[in-house]
Structures are given as structure tokens and as C-alpha cells.
Automatic annotation (TrEMBL):
<dbReference type="GO" id="GO:0046872">
    <property type="term" value="F:metal ion binding"/>
</dbReference>
<dbReference type="Pfam" id="PF00293">
    <property type="entry name" value="NUDIX"/>
</dbReference>
<feature type="domain" description="Nudix hydrolase">
    <location>
        <begin position="170"/>
        <end position="294"/>
    </location>
</feature>
<dbReference type="InterPro" id="IPR049734">
    <property type="entry name" value="NudC-like_C"/>
</dbReference>
<dbReference type="InterPro" id="IPR015376">
    <property type="entry name" value="Znr_NADH_PPase"/>
</dbReference>
<keyword id="KW-0378">Hydrolase</keyword>
<dbReference type="GO" id="GO:0035529">
    <property type="term" value="F:NADH pyrophosphatase activity"/>
</dbReference>
<keyword id="KW-0460">Magnesium</keyword>
<protein>
    <recommendedName>
        <fullName>NAD(+) diphosphatase</fullName>
        <ecNumber>3.6.1.22</ecNumber>
    </recommendedName>
</protein>
<dbReference type="InterPro" id="IPR050241">
    <property type="entry name" value="NAD-cap_RNA_hydrolase_NudC"/>
</dbReference>
<dbReference type="GO" id="GO:0019677">
    <property type="term" value="P:NAD+ catabolic process"/>
</dbReference>
<dbReference type="Pfam" id="PF09297">
    <property type="entry name" value="Zn_ribbon_NUD"/>
</dbReference>
<dbReference type="GO" id="GO:0005829">
    <property type="term" value="C:cytosol"/>
</dbReference>
<keyword id="KW-0520">NAD</keyword>
<dbReference type="GO" id="GO:0006742">
    <property type="term" value="P:NADP+ catabolic process"/>
</dbReference>
<dbReference type="InterPro" id="IPR015375">
    <property type="entry name" value="NADH_PPase-like_N"/>
</dbReference>
<dbReference type="InterPro" id="IPR020084">
    <property type="entry name" value="NUDIX_hydrolase_CS"/>
</dbReference>
Amino acid sequence: MTNRPNIYAAAPIDRASLRRKDEDWLTEAWLAPASRVLPIWQTKSFVAGPEDAPRAVLLPAEGLDAVPIFLGLMNGGLMDGTPVFAVDLSMVEDPDALPALRGHGRFEDLRATGPLMPEGEAALCAYARGMVWWNARHRFCGVCGSPAATAEGGHVRLCTNPGCATHHFPRTDPAVIMLVHDGGDRAVLGRQSRFPPGMHSVLAGFLEPGESLEDTVAREVFEEVGLTVTDIRYRSSQPWPFPSSLMLGFTARATSFDIDTGNDELESARWFDRDFLRNHTPDETFRLARPDSIAHRLIREWMAEG
């Protein structure tokens, strides 16, 4: 297990959760000239700078007419203690027409820009994206169907039906992602049909009710490639706000070795030698998972161990 955070983790922010119930403080913070806002438009993040080195843009709140979502207080650097909010501008047809945004940056898909950004800024954008997405998709109570209002700085959706008044909280879907090895110099990689040409990755799947994480690892490996595993070890985790997952990374040692993809969960899967993974130049026939993913990290760490 390693303590180095994955991309999109360890945002440089104090979430200041005790402030979320203080409506007066939130209002004052939103109106303060020093406060800053991360705009989101149709799930895209607001960035500036070169295409190969984008930076997150934090703007003053003035001129941004949207419901603020309190992210927290910046932690460290010149902006230490600065309140930071996210806003959803998806209702605007052309965000470039907004004077508050014009000339300050552009909206880009975080999945494309994240690997190129400073890690703290990518993590902050991921946090903002996740909160905006959750609020946008929980506008109605899941119990009675009544409209739900924003509460506690955007971290609660409150049913407006007095007879229900259910509090809804942001959800994160836990998923396991695991590198299966043979205890020696081989590891299993597979690909789904939706992957870019040549891309191979480790196995993954969502936790089901009543399962431990280890149960899920064993079940998903068997379902996807027909292998049994033991020696399941946790490695690290990664928030993955596309839209709302938490990836929990593991390694597992196979106790059977004949791969079977007959359940059609994968397009293909096979054993790969460590030397091949180290020496192959990425091309249209074979490449690893995207570099900002925990999948890529699991493979790289295993490659370095032998």
C-alpha cells in the first residue's frame, strides 16, 4: 500500500463541514469579494492556459447568477482560508456570452484536461464536478417525488413536502479495481469493446449489497475472466467523478490460470508478461489505461516490483 495520492484525490481544501449549516456565514462568504468560484458548464470545468498545460480558473462570484455549492476553504498558498464555491451554469446556452466569464478561460472535459493539470487543481475541479452533477440529478425527492431544495451549502437536498422532509445526501458508488497476477511475472489485462483501439486495463466492478470489498474482488474476477484468486491486498483509492465513483484498488493472486471470457463482460483478456509491459511502445495494438487512472498506477506499480 502506498500513501501517494492518486490524481483527483487530496484537493488542497479544508471542506469546513461545520460551516455548511450556518446560512448567515455561507451568504456572507458568497458575497465576499475575496471568495472564489469554480464554474461548471454541462459537466465541463473552466480552465485557461495552453492546451497541454491547462490551469483551473477561480473567479469572483460577482455576475454569476447561480445557486452556490460550498466546497470549503483553500488550504495553503496565497489563497489560504479563501472560501471556494462551485456553480452550475449548464442552463446558459452560450457561457462565453457571460461577462463574468468572457476572456478568462474555456470549458473543457476534465477527463481530457485532468492529466495535464497540476494535481491539486485537478482534484479541486473533480470535487466541484461531482457536487454539481449530484445536485443537478437530485432535483426531486426519491421518496415522494416532490421538489428537493438545496440545503447546507449544496451538500443536502431537502424534500420540500412537509409530510416527507427527507434529507438526501451526496452518494458515491464504490467500485473495486484489481490487478490479478500469477505470483510471478504475469498479470491479467483485458479490454471492453468501448475502449479506444488497443487499450488494455485491469479488471473492475461495482460493490453489491451485502458484500465486503474482498468478496467483490473475487466475484468480479471470476465473472469477468473465470479465475479464482487469493491474497487480496488493498493498494490505494481514487475518486472518479465520471460521474460519482470511488475506485478502490487491489492486487490479487490467481489460484487458477485458464482465462474464460465466456460471460461476455470483456471483449478479450489474457496474461501479459512483465517484460512485455515494460518494453512495449504504446500503439494501436496495445496501450495501457489512461495515465490519470488508478488502473494505470496499479499496472505501473506491479511492473516496478519485479
